[in-house]
Amino acid sequence: MKPFTAHNSLLATHYLLFILALFALGCGNKPNSSKDLISVSIVPEKYFVEQIAGNDFEVNIIIPPGVSHSNYDPSPSNMVAIGNSAAYFRIGDIGFEQALLNQIAALNPKLKIYNLSDSVHFVESPEVLEDVAHAGHHHHHGKYDQHIWMSARKAKIIAKNIYKAVSELKPERDAFYQANLTAFLQKMDSLDAAIQRKLADLSVRAFVIFHPALTYYAEDYGLEQIALEVDGKEPSVAWMQQVVKKIQDKNVRIIFIQNEYSQAAAVAISETTGVELQTINPLAEEWQKEFEKITDIISEKMK
Q1: φ, ψ for residue 18 (rounded to 5)?
Q2: pLDDT at 25
Q3: 221 and 181 in one domain?
Q4: 3-state secondary structure of 208
Q5: Are residues 179 and 249 in the same domain?
Q6: Same structural domain for residues 240 and 180?
Q7: SS3 for 129-157, per residue?
Q8: 111 shares its domain with 246
Q9: Does the pLDDT at position 288 exceed 60?
Q10: Which backbone phi and psi does 301 adopt, to 5 degrees?
Q11: Angle at Cα 116 formed by Cα 54 and Cα 110, nearest 5°?
């Protein structure tokens, strides 16, 4: 993921947002719902929260569907909603969160902030080949890959962290949350086992993707993810040549693309190699359906 860079204009925008949000909070603006509000960074978190907490909370999603978290700027209404929240659930250490958490805490000192990546074992972000890096195309998405929600195994850790949080927020509902957590963990175990069976006998185990959102999925099931994106930017010609060679060497049959990111490089490589493009949405609210869709594509195309 692209790390946050503090440009003067962006800082000015954030300053204005904080002033507007602070003014709104001072005026006593509150959500219309009688439910306590939880703010989350990305859309899939809403799915996970509702699996554990049911309808006990209203969930405010900061980054709307179809928008990349790499370069999103929160609106004044976002900031007001965060300020009115009982808690903020961060997914990990994505640049968006790193940029805003200190300001959010200053805006609402009583806001409880929970990190859903607690106890997750991170893997290092994908690196560009050494000879390409020497050409000045270093890959600096951050030391560790943050796409932890794209793993049924790590979804269990996310769910456990949500359980701890909502049980602290509403201790009187602990038994309900505990039962939901137990059911969700069992569902993830079944999902994981089903995917392992589907992908056990693939003849091809590598795929290409523009933005490397399937790092943990690939790690869980012994696959190789080849990312096109370089430091959040379009890949260089040199890197595209390396990817084409990898496609040929590994008999790659899928290039995954996402609507939040540019598709030009992926389309060019698809036209050059004849490898099929497949559109996926790792930021889908219907998380399990999308997870199963990705598995079905891999199972069908990589046999």
Answers
A1: -65, -40
A2: 46
A3: no
A4: strand
A5: no
A6: no
A7: CHHHHCCCCCCCCCCECCCCCCCHHHHHH
A8: no
A9: yes
A10: -85, -20
A11: 85
Q: State the DSSP H helix or E strand holding residue 283, giving kind and residue range, or none if neither.
A: none
106-130 burial string, b = 16+ CB within 10 Å, else e? ebbeebebbbbbeebebeebbebee
Predicted TM-score (pTM) of the model is 0.84
| Residues 149, 206 within the same domain | no
Residues, the chain, total?
Answer: 303
Alpha helical stretches, state H, 109-236? 130-133, 152-169, 174-199, 215-220
Q: Does the pLDDT value for residue 7 go beyond 70?
A: no
State whether 104 and 167 are in the same domain: yes
The predicted structure's pLDDT at residue 106: 74
Helix (H), strand (E), coil (C) string for 27-93: CCCCCCCCCEEEEECCHHHHHHHHHHHCCCEEEEECCCCCCCCCCCCCCHHHHHHHHCCCEEEECCC
Rounded alpha-carbon distances, angstroms, from residue 294 to 201, 213, 276, 279, 289: 16, 12, 14, 9, 9
Count of C-beta atoms within a 10 Å radius of residue 7: 9
In a domain, 134, yes or no: no
Can you tell me the distance from the alpha carbon of 1 to that of 233, in angstroms, rounded to the nearest whole number?
10
Write the pLDDT tens digit of every residue in 114-155: 999 999 999 887 654 434 443 444 444 457 888 999 999 999
Q: Of 152, 169, 188, which closes a domain?
A: 188
Same domain, 106 and 167: yes
* 161 and 217 within one domain: no
Q: Please check whether residue 135 lies inside any domain of the structure.
A: no
For residues 160, 161, 166, 167, the Cα torsion angle rounded to the nearest 10 degrees is 60
The domain that holds 227 is classified in CATH as 3.40.50.1980
With a cut of 50, say whether residue 255 has pLDDT above it: yes
Q: How far apart are CA 86 and CA 53, in angstroms?
A: 14
Residue 73, both tokens: 């700027």
Tokens describing residue 16 = 């204005």
Range of the domain at 227: 197-301
